Amino acid sequence: MQAIGYNGSEFIEFEKTLNHPTGRDLLVEIKAISVNPIDTKVKHTVAKDSAVKILGYDASGIVSAVGEQVSLFKVGDEVFYAGDVTRDGSNAAYQLVDERIVGRKPKSLNFEQAAALPLTSITAWESLFDRLKITQSDKDKSLLLIGAAGGVGSMAIQFAKQIIGMKVIATASRDESRSWCKQMGADIVLDHQHLAQQFK
Predict the structure, then answer these.
(1) N or C: which terminus of the chain has fewer CB atoms within 10 Å of its end residue's CB?
(2) What number is the average pLDDT over the span 38-46?
(3) How sure is the predictor about 51, in pLDDT bands with cuts at 50, 70 and 90?
(4) What would the 3-class secondary structure string for the chain be?
(5) What is the pLDDT of residues 115-136, one digit of tens each?
(6) Residues 125 and 164 in one domain
(7) Are residues 100 and 57 in the same domain?
């Protein structure tokens, strides 16, 4: 299969053996990927002239084969996931991934849209519901999100608004960013570069 890897100094296109899935692995035909900060962090760990590392973690695609212990998915299922930094990434035609870290692609999203969601969604979800312990009892409270126009902030706005029903106050600096926060559902959007003036 075709893959793009990094050898510590440059990205290279190369052919890699396509392995059949075993155990709880799915073999996913990659339809779309997205790039996240984790890609750059892992890239910097690859020593110059080392073995080629396939980067890429957020992806969406179609299950093309399953391991003998797979119980959650079948061939033909459309899926999305954030991947596993200890394994080959998604910058390839196919990827092996454990079914336990995979979700069904939402039918309302195309492959490109779905590939943009996994890591940002997981991070926003864990921040709001695992770390801050936000529950339905917080419905009448307000949530302030600083720099909310990025990937995680965009998802946090939607989770807080759509799942809990909180009042969301977001901050962003550019006109486009403030508009985006509004589109995501923020009730109030402040320019975080001029907060003091906005409270006069």
Answers:
(1) C
(2) 88
(3) confident
(4) CEEEEECCCCEEEEECCCCCCCCCEEEEEEEEECCCHHHHHHHCCCCCCCCCECCCCCEEEEEEEECCCCCCCCCCCEEEECCCCCCCCCCECEEEEEHHHEEECCCCCCHHHHHCCHHHHHHHHHHHHHHCCCCHHHCCCEEEECCCCCHHHHHHHHHHHHHHCCEEEEEECCHHHHHHHHHHCCCEEEECCCHHHHCC
(5) 999 999 999 999 999 999 999 9
(6) yes
(7) yes
